[in-house]
Design brief:
The chain is mainly alpha-helical. The chain contains four helices and no strands. It starts with a helix and ends in an 8-residue tail after the last helix. This is DUF4233 domain-containing protein. It comes from Nocardiopsis alba.
């Protein structure tokens, strides 16, 4: 799950970064404000992408999704992009959890099969 979420965050960081010149040129947002708000979110997305192995970073990324959604009202067209990335995030979490469950079941089956194989051939017995 964490890998999928990290990928979504990296692409989201790129899109958020590209929102800065749009906010400045088309919406007339002060460059310091645009750089601070969306630049900060882009950097946070990159940092959180690298830290997705930690539980707190995963929850912080949920907060980042909400922040992007709320600030997207300041730029025309950004709301649609925020909804798309929010949807990708939710889908990534759901599908990632399913993949993690399948991997755990597969690992348990492999471990059980390995245990059965060890029980069949007892130590000291000869196999041909």
């Amino acid at each position: 799950m964490r890998t999928v979420c990290a990928v979504v965050l990296v692409f989201e960081a790129i899109v958020i970064g590209l929102a800065i010149p749009i906010a400045i040129q088309l919406e007339g947002v002060d460059p310091a404000v645009a750089g601070g708000v969306w630049g900060g979110m882009a950097v946070a997305a990159l940092l959180l992408a690298g830290l997705q192995k930690r539980t707190w970073a995963h929850y912080a990324a949920w907060a980042l999704q909400a922040a992007f959604l709320f600030t997207s009202f300041m730029i025309s067209g950004a709301l649609l992009v925020a909804i798309i990335f929010g949807s990708l995030w939710v889908i990534g979490v759901i599908m990632g959890r399913r993949v993690d469950e399948i991997r755990a079941v597969h690992a348990a089956h492999a471990e059980a099969a390995e245990g059965e194989e060890g029980a069949v051939t007892a130590p000291g017995s000869q196999t041909r």
